[in-house]
Amino acid sequence: MSFSWKRFLQIGKIIFPFVVLTIVFFQAKKELAGISFLEAIDTIKNIPTGGVFLAITLGAFAVSTMFFYDYVMLRYLKADIPVQKIFRISWIANTLNGFIGFGGLVGAGVRTMLYRPYIKENGKLIKSIAWMTTAFINGLAILSFLGLIGILDTRFILHEKPWLWPVLIFFALFVPIYIGFSKLKNRKATQTEEQEEEEKNPTVLYSLVSLVEWVSAGIVMYVILLLFGIEIEFQKFLGVYVIAALAGVVSLVPGGLGSFDLVFLTGLGQYGIDTGVLLPAMLLYRLVYYILPFCLGLIFAAFEMTGVAIKKFEDKPFIAPALETTGVIWTLQRDFLGKLGSWASAALTVFAGLMVILSTILPTSINRAHALHILAPKHLIQFSFSLSLTFGILLLILSRGIYYGTKRSYYMTIVSLIGAAIFNTLKGIDVEETFILLIVLAVLYMLRKRFVREKMEVSLSDIVKVFIFLLVTLYLYKNLGILFAGAKEAFKPDFVVRNITQVKRSALAAAFFVPTFLLIGSLIANRYRNEFPGQPANDKRLQNFLDEHGGNVLSHLGFLGDKQFFFSSDGKALILFSITGKRLIVLGDPIGDPSSYRTVLQEFLAEADRFGYICVFYQIESKWMSLYHDFGYNFFKLGEEAVVDLNTFTITGKKRAGMRATFNRFEREGYTFSIHEPPFSDELY
């Protein structure tokens, strides 16, 4: 087996971020060992009123600046796309890049898919996206150059992390190399001065947009530090931020998670800033610059991304052949992007569930608590905590059904969101969380037509997994509740914290209510939707079908009565199958007119998907393998089938001596043999 550098680099690109995260994890344990949880809480309490809202606003603005990458590219391509749509696609691509990564490949895939209907030249679109993706680091490279020549203060951090010197030098030289290569490329590719002017403009504009993007992100972090009472010269701060950002970029970890944070903490620590104060500031930065924009991106993706989009994208004659050669990276992305709309809906459900669960642990404002005790009895408030926790866990469990688009999970999720919104308000007048829950509810309601699957079959292993998940979630909930209860004094006098007994009671109540709700919901759903594809066996109809359209070597097994029939809409093709758990086991290839095989397979798979079944085809003929491949099937050889031509078969000759002896013995003992053709008479049985 020959060694392939390309394959080696592909695997290395996937493994390297995990290695970096492992190293960062152990290093971070050492750096953060002295951080006090109580000190972090006290720091958060001192944020000025409206400070969090200011940070969220600045974070949204900083992410919005990346819209101009797409605007510049599409202006260069002369594409007529509404600005609002460009903004949504840009937001989806950029927030996915920041949260998931793959070196910008996820964002490139999203852009290629969603911009393709508006661009005539496929090749030009792909090249433009690739060139634009490369330009994302230009702004960081410009800031690196300023650090290299001393305008930004990077001395202390580089003294602490000398291994970053080569990285700084490389990035400082990146922009001149990028622009120089761009001019060389333009000189070779263009023929007129006008064309050359059109080609070179995006290069400079991309660099300017990138500079604005990186400076904006730095300003968000700087303002957050000021909100936490951390004062440092902007020049020194930006120097540390740039070096930390470089560490994050070279780590290939999404958002520079871990590597950026560790270098940033170390760098500002060189200026005497307390790490215990920096940690909550960095968590807020992650929240406003990555997590919240990503959640908004999920809402956009839920509406923009569909299975139809990826299908149209792959069907293009220029793109489809290229995808066959891009290997494992595109395979992963294609599967991800094709299901991104479903994934976004499920992720929103998970986000809502986690938010509700955390809201039952986090301290409640003392003013709201006093107002609530006037309006509602104490036992109702405590009961509301338990039900809020119940609905939060249910949202996490039901997110799987939301991903697969089942109606049962959709209706149960709607009920859970409404219940969570009601009891979330009753437990602490948490109007902010309730407002977010109503937004998620509205999004799922607007997407209701996507939930076309009647159900997903639930196996015993699925039930076991749900119970294990429930127990693990409640265990983590209890431990987190104990952690906050232990820090009760730090929240006084502005907040009220639940005690350990109350946390345990809520966990026990949820352990009862969650399975009960799932059981009742499933029973109601199964009562009205206990259906499956096809129709029961009918010997007379099968015989008429075979007389008119013919069959194959397995058709006679349809008369056994143990299989379901599925006819094509034109009545010219038939599939025989049996139901086994979550799977429909299809016997052989379709029967009937070969011109209707594709139709009956397409209709059968769609109907099976609607009822949540997985289709398995057994004993197919090799000549139809390409047809099954078009529907995404993989193949494996289970055995071989012998076919004997009865017209030419004989038992004469030396090779058949053993068989001849057996035949003669049967004749001597009076055995008889006959062939009966279906349908069979009662006398035969």
TrEMBL record:
Subcellular location as annotated: Cell membrane
Membrane topology, from the record: Multi-pass membrane protein
Keyword terms of this UniProt record: Antibiotic resistance, Cell membrane, Lipid metabolism, Membrane, Transferase, Transmembrane, Transmembrane helix
Domain Phosphatidylglycerol lysyltransferase C-terminal, residue spans: 545-681
Signal peptide: none
Gene Ontology molecular function: any one: phosphatidylglycerol lysyltransferase activity
Function as written in the Swiss-Prot or TrEMBL entry: Catalyzes the transfer of a lysyl group from L-lysyl-tRNA(Lys) to membrane-bound phosphatidylglycerol (PG), which produces lysylphosphatidylglycerol (LPG), a major component of the bacterial membrane with a positive net charge. LPG synthesis contributes to bacterial virulence as it is involved in the resistance mechanism against cationic antimicrobial peptides (CAMP) produces by the host's immune system (defensins, cathelicidins) and by the competing microorganisms.
Family statement drawn from the similarity comment of this UniProt entry: Belongs to the LPG synthase family.
Annotated protein name in UniProt: Phosphatidylglycerol lysyltransferase
Native source species: Bacillus cereus
Taxonomic placement: Bacteria, Bacillati, Bacillota, Bacilli, Bacillales
